[in-house]
């Protein structure tokens, strides 16, 4: 007999299954039945861990907050040089999108923005924290002379994140028709020319 999985592991499996459904079929296709099928468990098991789809949406926002924004905060708090931190944040975010195509589909979905104001507020708060984190790294880069004096840390952070988001949007809409990591490499090198 297999050992019983903990609630935390089950919830993680459900969130991963939800991301898989969104990544392949979009947010509109996200039903409890679709999640159960992707997770290889019964719908009753999903309801044992989540009250419904809205709870799963919030769990997805938490996952994004941890793997993308939380990771950026951890990198920013480290001891490396600001430009190394920025590069690591940039490429770890791109890798996360490549590994989880459901992330941009979820973030860009009108169903999420308009259908659930509390969820939209939650995601907007997390994005604001992300902008602050990246702004702090950029400000440190300016102070250390690695980035051009006169750059605005906040506007440069928004440019940096816009580069990621627009690439993710193009990649998602195009059905992952180009190598997002190769594209990211070109964008990063061009960004350096602009800000150094």
TrEMBL record:
Chain residues forming the annotated DNA-binding region: 31-50
Key word DNA-binding present: yes
Coiled coil region boundaries: none
Residues covered by the HTH tetR-type domain: 8-68
InterPro entries: Homeodomain-like_sf, HTH-type_TetR-like_transc_reg, HTH_TetR, KstR2_TetR_C, Tet_transcr_reg_TetR-rel_C_sf
Pfam families per UniProt: TetR_C_24, TetR_N
Keywords: DNA-binding, Transcription, Transcription regulation
Domain of life: Bacteria
SUPFAM superfamilies recorded: Homeodomain-like, Tetracyclin repressor-like, C-terminal domain
Keyword Transcription regulation annotated: yes
Entry's Gene Ontology molecular function annotations: DNA-binding transcription factor activity; transcription cis-regulatory region binding
The protein, known as: Transcriptional regulator, TetR family
Organism, scientific name: Geotalea uraniireducens (strain Rf4) (Geobacter uraniireducens)
Organism phylogeny: Bacteria, Pseudomonadati, Thermodesulfobacteriota, Desulfuromonadia, Geobacterales
């Amino acid at each position: 007999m297999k050992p019983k999985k903990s609630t935390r592991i089950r919830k993680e499996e459900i969130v991963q299954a939800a991301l898989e459904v969104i990544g392949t079929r979009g947010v509109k296709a996200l039903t409890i039945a679709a999640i159960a099928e992707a997770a290889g468990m019964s719908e009753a098991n999903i309801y044992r861990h989540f009250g419904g789809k809205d709870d799963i949406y919030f769990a997805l926002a938490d996952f994004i907050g941890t793997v993308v924004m939380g990771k950026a905060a951890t990198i920013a708090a480290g001891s490396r040089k600001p430009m190394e931190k920025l590069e690591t944040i940039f490429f770890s975010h791109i890798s996360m999108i490549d590994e989880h195509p459901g992330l941009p589909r979820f973030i860009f979905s009108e169903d999420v923005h308009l259908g659930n104001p509390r969820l939209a507020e939650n995601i907007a708060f997390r994005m604001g924290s992300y902008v602050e984190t990246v702004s702090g790294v950029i400000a440190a880069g300016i102070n250390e002379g690695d980035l051009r004096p006169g750059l605005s840390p906040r506007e440069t952070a928004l440019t940096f994140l816009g580069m990621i988001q627009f690439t993710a949007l193009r990649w998602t809409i195009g059905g992952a028709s180009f190598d997002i990591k190769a594209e990211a490499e070109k964008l990063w090198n061009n960004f350096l020319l602009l800000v150094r």
